[in-house]
């Protein structure tokens, strides 16, 4: 295997990492020991809102900034832990007074404004279930998810209500109330002004006893490989959020953390709401969409110390030739991470060279509720590898044959599976019991990602099960091919698919988007095919290259290879609700 290693010298790190010795911590870790970081409710049980907000608001962190909110027009607001406690208490009272009961689902369909974060905590307090949607969704995807999720409440804006919700309102039969975050007066007796309700709501709220197994979140998957699935999570998931915040994100008390994800995607709830607040640190939220200069300004001006983003953002910086370190003072930034898609070695190296620190890849899914495999501040990075399982999680590679599994050999590709029982494991797929059952074989959860483990225990992503290409008897992972082409200086993004072929079964076809300043040409095509052959060998190298302006992606920035394939073959596109437009 050919990869670059980013050596870590712990003595050079700005702060001592929480995970000092991976092997030692992994060996001795017990989930029971994590409980000591939680206070528990005074009247029993475990509730996210208490551990994330009230606990701090009742103690020495009361006046510490919990949320720095930056609006899309550069407005800036700060909220302390005490503020979030008070405001979320008000919303919990509103829900309670309107008769919302334990387990009822409240959907969020709103841009990233402070109310989104405040009401999330209020929802947990009243033991309702939060279900976040992307504000850019059209009416159909919203209706689909709200109907299947039995939505009882909705938090949204006047604009979204008028333009998107009104036309689907007849389908939302169980909906009791809609809360509009930006109107001063009620529209009618069901469509209410949230600011008005908040003005009159009591600031005191006692969280009722909450069972750690009570449902907290209903999250829809990204829809990268097909129709999005509803995933059920419980309050106990905070065990994972705490542990990963500590060991992977490496939270220390003075950190200023920015996770760029929208709560419409699981990263935006687990890591842009819950995990940083469990650790009592300052959390940055930016309302606007990706904008390279604005993002770098935020990193600089807010003195962000830890940054959690996605490969799609890194690729954009690369594409436009932006050199953050040269243009901005990023001296406060000490740790950077990414999730959502494989981080090609180019991305890791770009971090080292242009940002001043490597980007640490992390792997997880909506179903896992939190980070499962990661690179750590104290551990050498093998550029292109996802790293090693978090303490408390056993991961392994198996060859799965329907209901039986066989452990794969070192470096042999197979299904990436996780030993059942980590606290943030999904408790079910919504209305898909059979699919849920099939996700497990014996004691193992099957992620449906293909990966392998090397001799040092590092995991390497190969591709999603559904995207694996079968060409002339070879099983080809998308990641390897995409990473090889990414090495060409002209290439910004690549998505590969298997294109049916009468002789080979499938051939590898690559769709390539170029960096600023490069133009498609026959010569470039030849160069890319040659590079593929050199790096991968003739059997695996792409046989066809097509240049396109940009690849179809989900709103969370994941390349939708199924759409590339459907278009290539002239097939129906399937569910495109999460497609970025
Ligand atoms: P759907 O299940 O609806 O097709 P999705 O799988 O993209 O969508 P998510 O749960 O948001 O929905 O994403 C999880 C998937 O994202 C993983 O199974 C994996 O394929 C991919 N992924 C996430 N992080 C990484 C990573 N670091 N390296 C490689 N792949 C990753
Ligand atoms: Mg998935």
Q: What does the overall shape look like? A: globular
Radius of gyration: 23 Å
C-alpha end-to-end distance:
38 Å
Major β-sheet annotation: 9 strands, mixed
CATH superfamily of the largest domain: ANL, N-terminal domain
Strand content: 15-25%
Structure, described:
By secondary structure, the protein is α/β, with parallel strands linked by helices. It has 2 domains: 5-30 and 32-453, ANL, N-terminal domain (Rossmann fold, 3-Layer(aba) Sandwich); 468-569, ANL, C-terminal domain (GMP Synthetase, Chain A, domain 3), CATH 3.30.300. 29% of the residues lie in helices and 25% in strands. It has a 9-stranded mixed beta sheet. Strands 19, 20, 21, 23, 24 and 25 form a 6-stranded antiparallel beta sheet that branches. The longest helix is centred in the N-terminal third of the chain and has 17 residues, at 81-97. It is globular, with a radius of gyration of 23 Å.
Report a brief summary of the structure.
The protein is an alpha/beta fold and 581 residues long. It is 29% helix and 25% strand.
Question: Can you lay out the helices and strands and say which pair or pack?
Answer:
Layout: E1 5-6, H1 22-28, H2 31-34, H3 48-57, E2 65-70, E3 76-80, H4 81-97, E4 105-109, H5 114-125, E5 129-133, H6 139-148, E6 151-156, H7 158-165, E7 177-180, E8 191-193, H8 194-200, E9 215-220, E10 230-234, H9 238-247, E11 256-259, H10 266-278, E12 282-286, H11 292-301, E13 306-309, H12 311-319, H13 324-327, E14 335-338, H14 345-355, E15 359-363, E16 373-374, E17 381-382, E18 388-389, E19 395-401, E20 404-407, E21 414-419, E22 428-429, H15 433-438, E23 440-441, E24 444-453, E25 459-464, E26 469-471, E27 474-476, H16 478-486, E28 491-501, E29 505-514, H17 522-536, E30 544-547, H18 561-569
Magnesium ion (MG) is lined by residues 221, 365.
């Amino acid at each position: 295997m050919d990869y670059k290693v980013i050596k870590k010298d712990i003595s050079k790190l700005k702060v001592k990492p929480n995970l000092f010795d991976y092997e030692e911590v992994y060996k001795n870790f017990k989930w029971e020991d994590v409980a000591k970081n939680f206070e528990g409710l005074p009247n029993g049980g475990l509730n996210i809102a208490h551990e994330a907000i009230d606990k701090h608001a009742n103690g020495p962190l009361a006046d510490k900034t919990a949320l720095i909110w930056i609006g899309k027009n550069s407005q800036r607001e700060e909220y302390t832990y005490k503020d979030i406690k008070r405001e979320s208490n008000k919303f919990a009272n509103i829900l309670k007074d309107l008769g919302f009961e334990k387990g009822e689902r409240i959907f969020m369909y709103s841009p990233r404004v402070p109310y989104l974060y405040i009401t999330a905590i209020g929802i947990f307090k009243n033991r309702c279930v939060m279900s976040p949607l992307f504000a850019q969704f059209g009416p159909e995807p919203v209706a689909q998810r709200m109907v299947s999720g039995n939505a009882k409440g909705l938090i949204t804006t006047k604009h979204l209500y008028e333009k998107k919700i009104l036309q689907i309102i007849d389908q939302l039969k169980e909906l009791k109330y809609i809360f509009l975050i930006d109107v001063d007066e009620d529209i009618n007796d069901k469509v209410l002004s949230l600011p008005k309700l908040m003005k009159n709501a009591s600031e005191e709220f006692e969280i009722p006893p909450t069972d750690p197994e009570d449902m907290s979140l209903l999250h829809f998957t990204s829809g990268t490989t097909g129709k999005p699935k509803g995933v059920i999570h419980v309050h106990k998931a905070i065990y994972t959020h705490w542990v990963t915040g500590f060991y992977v994100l490496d939270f220390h008390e003075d950190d200023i953390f920015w996770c760029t994800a929208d709560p419409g995607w699981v990263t935006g709830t687990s890591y842009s709401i819950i995990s940083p607040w469990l650790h009592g640190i300052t959390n940055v939220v930016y309302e606007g969409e990706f904008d390279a200069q604005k993002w770098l300004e935020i990193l600089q001006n807010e003195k962000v110390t830890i940054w959690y983003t996605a490969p799609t953002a890194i690729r954009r910086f690369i594409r436009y030739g932006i050199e953050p370190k040269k243009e901005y003072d990023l001296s406060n930034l000490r740790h950077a991470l990414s999730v959502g898609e494989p981080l090609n070695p180019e991305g890791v190296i770009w971090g080292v060279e242009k940002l001043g620190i490597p980007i640490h890849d992390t792997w997880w899914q909506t179903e896992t509720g939190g980070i499962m495999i990661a690179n750590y501040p104290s551990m050498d990075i093998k550029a292109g590898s996802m790293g090693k399982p978090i303490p408390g999680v056993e991961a392994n590679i198996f060859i799965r044959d329907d209901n039986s599994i066989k452990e794969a050999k070192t470096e042999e590709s197979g299904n990436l599976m996780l030993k059942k029982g980590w606290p943030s494991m999904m408790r079910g797929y919504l209305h898909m019991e059979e699919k849920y059952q099939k996700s497990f074989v014996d004691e193992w959860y099957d992620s449906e990602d293909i990966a392998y483990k090397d001799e040092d225990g590092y995991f390497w992503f190969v591709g999603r099960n559904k995207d694996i290409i079968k060409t002339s008897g070879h099983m080809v992972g998308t990641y390897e091919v995409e990473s090889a082409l990414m090495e060409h200086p002209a290439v910004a993004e690549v998505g590969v698919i298997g294109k049916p072929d009468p002789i080979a079964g499938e051939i590898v076809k690559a769709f390539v988007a170029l960096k600023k300043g490069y133009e498609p040409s026959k010569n470039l095509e030849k160069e890319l095919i040659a590079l593929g052959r050199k790096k991968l060998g003739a059997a695996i190298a792409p046989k066809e290259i097509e240049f396109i302006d940009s690849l179809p992606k989900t709103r969370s920035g994941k390349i939708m290879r199924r759409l590339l394939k459907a278009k290539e073959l002239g097939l129906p596109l399937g569910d495109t609700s999460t497609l970025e437009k």
